[in-house]
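User: I'm putting together a teaching handout on how sequence relates to shape, and I'd like one worked example. Could you take Phospholipase/carboxylesterase/thioesterase domain-containing protein from Erythroxylum novogranatense, show the sequence you're using, and then write out its predicted structure as tokens right after it?

Assistant: Happy to. First the sequence, then the structure tokens directly below it.
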Amino acid sequence: MRVLIKPMVILAVTLCCTIAFTLFSRPKSSLVTKSDTMARSFILWLHGLGDSGPANEPIKTLFTSREFRNTKWSFPSAPDSPVTCNYGYVMSSWFDIHEIPVTAESPKDESSLLKAVQKVHAMIDKEIGAGTDADNVFVCGFSQGGALTLASVLLYPKTLGGGAVFSGWVPFNSSIVGQITQEAKKTPILWLHGMADRTVLFEAGQAGPPFLEQAGISSEFKAYPGLGHSINNEELQYLESWIKARLRTTS
């Protein structure tokens, strides 16, 4: 399917504007003086196609609850790679995408996807090796980063705290399902998608939970009417509460 490069730029700009809006529109909470009771936690955020990690860092300032005072955030940037849907144009990309809009039937490039999964697993392994419990590791991602989030948490051999998919899709075929361990199937999955998305069609996101259910994996799906290919304040607020409810304490 013919796609110009310009929509990719708009995609990244839209997301950055959304982050800026939520940053300045959300009221600040009061400072908490009581001592921390939370264990160390880790949130890894994976950006979308053509975006960068630093551009998404304002997201962490929205998580003001004291439960996140011992949270380490990571916003890595994808390497620059040729992208098929943009006629081989080199841009920041976790893995190759063959067509946009992404539909439930879009072709999957599992080879480049699995290489990206290995990189994400290396980041998770490093953090767990530094002392963070796997139950307090959360991977979140938008669009292409959301698809990579799903693959990364399901193919990780341990149960993680959770994986949150924003406007993503299932980037692999049923043949990979056999590689998912029973421990990985216990990792909570949160899936959020705008119903007005014209880049990763709502049908692509909506097809995810039934696909997972057939593999014995449960997930929570939330649809947002009127939301296009972007992240809004309501989604991020829900993500905060969703992660907070799953964080382990030291007490």
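A couple of points you could highlight for students: The longest strand covers residues 41-46. The radius of gyration is 17 Å.
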